[in-house]
Amino acid sequence: MNIITQNLIGYSYSAEGTKTFSTFNPVDQSATPWVFKNATLSELKKATALAERAFFPYKSMSVARRAAFLRAIAKEILSLGEDLTRTYTMETGLPKGRAEGERGRTIGQLEAFATAIENGQYLQPIIDHADANRTPIPKVDLRKINEPIGPIAVFGASNFPLAYSTAGGDTASALATGCPVVVKAHPMHASTNALVTQAILKAAQDTKMPEGVFSCLYSNDYEIGSQLVQDPLIKGVGFTGSISGGTALFKLAQSREVPIPVFAEMGSVNPVVVLPEALNKNPTDWANAYAGSISLGSGQFCTNPGLIFCIQSPELDVFIHTLSEAFHQIAPTFMLHPSIHAAYEKDQAEFDALAKKVGSTSTQSPAIEGIGHGAIYQVDAKTFAANPRLHQEVFGPLSLIVVCKDVAELLPLIARLDGQLTGTILGSENDLQANETLVATLQNRVGRLIFNGVPTGVEVCAAMQHGGPFPASTDERFTAVGVKAMDRWLRPVSYQNWPDKLLPKALQNNNPLGLHRLINGTLIKD
Amino acid sequence: MNIITQNLIGYSYSAEGTKTFSTFNPVDQSATPWVFKNATLSELKKATALAERAFFPYKSMSVARRAAFLRAIAKEILSLGEDLTRTYTMETGLPKGRAEGERGRTIGQLEAFATAIENGQYLQPIIDHADANRTPIPKVDLRKINEPIGPIAVFGASNFPLAYSTAGGDTASALATGCPVVVKAHPMHASTNALVTQAILKAAQDTKMPEGVFSCLYSNDYEIGSQLVQDPLIKGVGFTGSISGGTALFKLAQSREVPIPVFAEMGSVNPVVVLPEALNKNPTDWANAYAGSISLGSGQFCTNPGLIFCIQSPELDVFIHTLSEAFHQIAPTFMLHPSIHAAYEKDQAEFDALAKKVGSTSTQSPAIEGIGHGAIYQVDAKTFAANPRLHQEVFGPLSLIVVCKDVAELLPLIARLDGQLTGTILGSENDLQANETLVATLQNRVGRLIFNGVPTGVEVCAAMQHGGPFPASTDERFTAVGVKAMDRWLRPVSYQNWPDKLLPKALQNNNPLGLHRLINGTLIKD
Q1: Tell me: the pLDDT tens digits for A307-332?
Q2: β-bridge mates for residue A522, sequence order
Q3: What angle do CA A169, B522, B147 make, to 5 degrees?
Q4: Per annotation, catalytic residue among A91, A102, A216, A302
Q5: How many whole angstroms separate alpha carbon B524 and alpha carbon B521?
Q6: Which of these, B213, B260, B269, lies nearest to B237 by C-alpha position?
Q7: For an interface test with B, which of A465, A486, A503 has the most B Cβ atoms less than 10 Å from its Cβ?
Q8: What is the b/e burial string over B282-295, where b = at least 16 CB atoms within 10 angstroms of the residue's CB?
Q9: What pLDDT score does A1 carry?
């Protein structure tokens, strides 16, 4: 397996640095064979300079060529075959099926963005015609279209080595809009990243993209990431990870001489509200579904259900009992990295001190190093309200059941929740109608409302909102998933009295791209 | 004339503070008769608490009611009659025609936002249908719609006492989306603001809006504005003003425990590039047009043309000579306030030391206090490149001509410009085609490109982009003018597997609002 462990700066590999690191195999608890050198500031500066130089030629080329580039990346990733899935499982401890699924998602995203830019509607063309006869002042002709903002820095996620890393949603959405990308690879899966980088390099050269459209830097310390976010040539940042990491990058970006937008998709406890009729009908079905959702991928998902609010009832006891039993049938799995595992064990110890444990995944004998043991806790509403620690995300297979006497006791807990990616309601339509205020209150804290489902499983489509009030994300007005993720890297530009034939095609009178356009206030395709 | 000089907190007037101030009449150089008391922190807290309490009922009411509220505000502003225009001219030194024009614009904006929400397309509904048969995992039903983000703080602008202040674009766009508003009135035109506040209060009560949908605070120091931006109940900020003021509020908002979006429309020098064929054809026409644009409103516009880049030629001498002559025909006018006037005189003295003065407006004898004397300067490209002071905005009737030997000398000057609201090109279509790189470089620095026109005059329409790369504004992805200004205060929310009849109307299967919706990737109205 040929893994190139150097930084990719435009079309050249480079390893000027001296500090090295390797990734870790959580299954056999040993370092992987590949050694990476931390990027230097000089390598970073070369990468951003090439990205800036590539910006004009890249954004100016035809949409067909950009789409071909995205599809070539997808093809090259698939061509990596088992080398990729083997490296992925080696660096994460996740099963092969997950690697294949995530590869499929990554490829699907690249293809979806290619299709979206070919469709052209993302340009959001708006036209207001001139009116020379208007009094007291004639009206000018104005036409507006979306333009890419410039080179984007992308930080790979620890928990999605493919779909939210090197060629993941942030990179694909930025490249689609016409923005070059400089990736800071996640140090926990640098080798997976290296293979994907090789795929992108080949795709870029085969489709004759300008050098600098993509670069990739390695580092296992914070310095190079901080420098990247502060580089004046970088115009936006995509990040998926922890609240502390995302907030630190966000603050750096806002304290630049020229602040830039940062879209950081950070933590979430994804509250679930169990309304009375949910348990009347199928307490055991929901118990089984949630045992699976809490433990899925060793709980290492940003949509992991970490908080389950319930109303006291005899059926609730059945639900908790069944959830506990179903959870115990589940074999715990490896966590991504010793540092993540250690953090999880520390969090569990904190919960042990604050809440009653009512469920755990099965235990092996002898104990296996690196396994994340699932745990379900229970508290009453007062204890929950009094302990801010219990409101915070635990990254791992852990969930907390909060038992309230009634909806009146539940409501203020929901109102005081931090911002969340998702909020789920289990119940009947009657429950929804009878609890209008509760639903509105939950909606105000989340990006996505789910009825009778589990929050894990983030569908990639235009109607997906993945992003919520802070700290779920740094800008709730945008999404990290689905074609609307491109809006993060776009800005509108108006043309006033511009000659028709020199306008971008989407704005020309005869509508050569066949787009829906907002013309004088009416959305039409003509 | 009944001007209520107290803070409006929901439906009650309040004046707990002790520190007072009055506004200033620049024409007779004296204080106006009305005395305002600075708001206290306790008054501010009452205003934001009422705004939060009003948020749910206000955003949940029918669009027809919100639209009726906006139209009632417009009607009440018009009903203020000459009281309003007289107070406006008294506090600004601007002529009555300008007051009437700006009132018309303010009313037009309120009506345009009312129409836009009735139209409903701003909700941007997106639907992706379920597919129970998809393998390996069935697809869920997802539907996305825009929701208001919560109470917004609006800071009135010094130079637009009506159109970008109390009931101006920021307030109208926020109220339209369903966000309550707390205004921090600009202390230079508090009395104008007080009249408009009275109009909004009457409109809110007449249309039975929830108390707290609008409040207005007075202060002539920075403290109350800082507190407002840091108040946890405030979810977004609209600001029009100086780079220093906007940047300070932006930094405060980003350093909150929960950062919030700030849209600050700040400074701009609005570069104009004069290409050769512009002067071959009509040097005198452009000279006359620019003499007017530079001096319009005593140069106190964010789109005032402060930089004019030209290429050396015999025709250029004619242009500069004619511009100078035309400029001298113009009678200078009052500036808004002694502090603005003093800053302008200081800026002029700095330019006197760095550049050659080639034009000035006519002078009166005896000198009149408070008048802003127009000035046009000239430098060569090297001097311009070497003096960052010459790149910065001067708020007043001042413009700088930068003479370049050729386009090659001009290009790097454009590339290194700060972000701008507008960039203008004077020339022929041939000029545009022959200077593709120059046009692309200018476009990359601005929000609006103008061909053969002047930057002053900001049309209120959907295709207007008013906002540009920092420091023109704090987020170039949004506009402050036109119906798209609502996007600043909206966030998407997804509904997963939600019962059809309980979805927002815009997302229901039978499309009761008759909207264009993106359904399974296709934009249709069905």
Answers
A1: 999 999 999 999 999 999 999 999 99
A2: A519
A3: 70
A4: A302
A5: 9
A6: B260
A7: A465
A8: ebeebbbbbbebbb
A9: 78
Contact call for residues A179 and A150 (beta carbons, < 8 A): yes
Helices (H) and strands (E) in chain B, counts: 16, 25
Residue A337 and residue A24 in contact, taking contact as beta carbons nearer than 8 Å? yes
Residue A204, token pair as written in the block: 């870029």
Paired tokens of A406? 């009634």
- Of A76, A91, A102, A265, the catalytic one is A265
Q: Where are the alpha helices (DSSP H) in B238-313?
A: 243-254, 276-281, 283-295
Active site residue A404: no
SS3 A378: strand
Question: pLDDT tens-digit profile of A162-217?
Answer: 999 999 999 999 999 999 999 999 999 999 999 999 999 999 999 999 999 999 99
DSSP state of A336: S
User: Both tokens of residue A183?
Assistant: 């990736």
Tell me which chain B residues have a C-beta less than 8 angstroms from the C-beta of A432.
499, 502
pLDDT in tens, B193-223: 999 999 999 999 999 999 999 999 999 999 9
How far is Cα B218 from Cα B155, in angstroms, rounded to an integer?
Answer: 11
Whether pTM exceeds 0.90: yes
Sign of CA dihedral B472, B477, B482, B488: negative
- What span, in angstroms and rounded, lies between the C-alpha atoms of B204 and B66? 10
User: Which of A254, A479, A497 is facing B453, going by the closest CB pair?
Assistant: A497
Q: Phi and psi for A517 in degrees, rounded to 5?
A: -135, 145
- What band does B395 get if pLDDT is binned at 50, 70 and 90? very high
Partnered with residue B446 across adjacent β-strands are B420
Residues B399 and B378: their CA atoms lie apart, in Å, by 9
The overall average pLDDT reported for chain A is 96
A489: which DSSP letter? G
- Exposure of B48 in the CB half-sphere (CA atoms within 13 A): 24
Catalytic residues of B: 265, 302
Close Cβ partners of A53 (under 8 Å, ≥ 6 residues apart): A210, A211, A212
d(C-alpha A359, C-alpha A339), whole Å: 24
CB atoms within 10 A of CB A232: 11
Using an 8 Å CB-CB cutoff, list chain B residues near A471.
Answer: 258
Test mutation, B100, B123, B477, chain A, max A CBs within 10 A: B477
Distance CA B517, CA A463 (A): 11
Question: Could you tell me where the DSSP H helices lie in B123-186?
Answer: 169-177
Bridge partners of residue A236, in order along the sequence: A152
Look at residue A220 and give its three-state secondary structure. Answer: coil
